[in-house]
Amino acid sequence: MALPEELADMLLGSIVDGQFPSESVLPSEGELAQKYGMSRLTVREAVRILRSQNIVSIHRGRGTFINPPQAWRSLAAVVRIEERRSPSGGVSRRLIEARRMVEIGAAQLAAVHRSKEDLESLAASIEEMRLANRQSQVELFVEADIAFHDVIMHATANMFIPFMFEPFGHLLIEARTETSAIPEIQVNAIAMHEAILEALISGDPKKSRDAMEAHMDQTENDLRRYVIDADQPAAQGANRDAP
């Protein structure tokens, strides 16, 4: 990582941690250069990187201001601050919400346009998931899982849909690696994928839509049961005792 990028990342960390609050003024170039032991040129380039992501804005004669997170144009930066602000599983829940909006409709459309090759690829992905599950290979399981959904996106025959989730690629890998490390979640995922494939084979748009929606429901339930509640044993116990 080049020095300006490294410094931009450190400055973002300070913003996320609240050292430089939203709408406050960033210290001057000279102050930042002294604080981080870097040249003014490096500081200037680092600020330029943050400005290109709309994390900061420069007002001549007034200084460099920290923009509120809702104005940021960097997904990585938004996720970083959201992870700090949100309770356990907060980012993953929002990712599932986004997936619902795209993938349920994609399954419905894929039921109409899927080809024989698409169905064969989906079946192969499920078989790879089964194999990875038997061998306790989480990374391979995640790869097969993502490949399954990618085939559905392309099977819609709509050139825009596969690109809609590209910015979320690394988030999907991280989220699925976390949940797929749990054997029960792998078993549930395989069953849901089998149901989706069966619906797509039938060519019924409603069945395919319903199968994908059931998968999203199961994904959210598994996240809550095995990840969020597991991180909050006290809250889980309180929920069990509640009438």
In total, the number of domains comes to: 2
Strand order of the largest sheet: 1-3-2
Biggest sheet, in brief?
3 strands, antiparallel
User: Into which percentage range does the β-strand content fall?
Assistant: under 5%
Number of E strands = 3
Protein name: GntR family transcriptional regulator
GO molecular function: DNA binding; DNA-binding transcription factor activity
Keywords: DNA-binding, Transcription, Transcription regulation
Domain HTH gntR-type: 1-69
Task: Write structural notes for this entry.
The chain has twelve helices and three strands, in the order αβααββααααααααα. The protein has helices spanning 3-16, 29-36, 40-52, 75-85, 90-113, 116-134, 138-155, 161-164, 169-180, 183-202, 205-231, 233-241; strands at 25-26, 56-59, 63-66. α10 (183-202) runs antiparallel to α11. It is elongated.
Task: Reconstruct the topology from this structure.
Elements: H1 3-16, E1 25-26, H2 29-36, H3 40-52, E2 56-59, E3 63-66, H4 75-85, H5 90-113, H6 116-134, H7 138-155, H8 161-164, H9 169-180, H10 183-202, H11 205-231, H12 233-241
Antiparallel strand pairs: 1-3, 2-3
Helix pairs in contact: 1-3, 2-3, 5-7, 5-10, 5-11, 6-7, 6-10, 7-9, 10-11
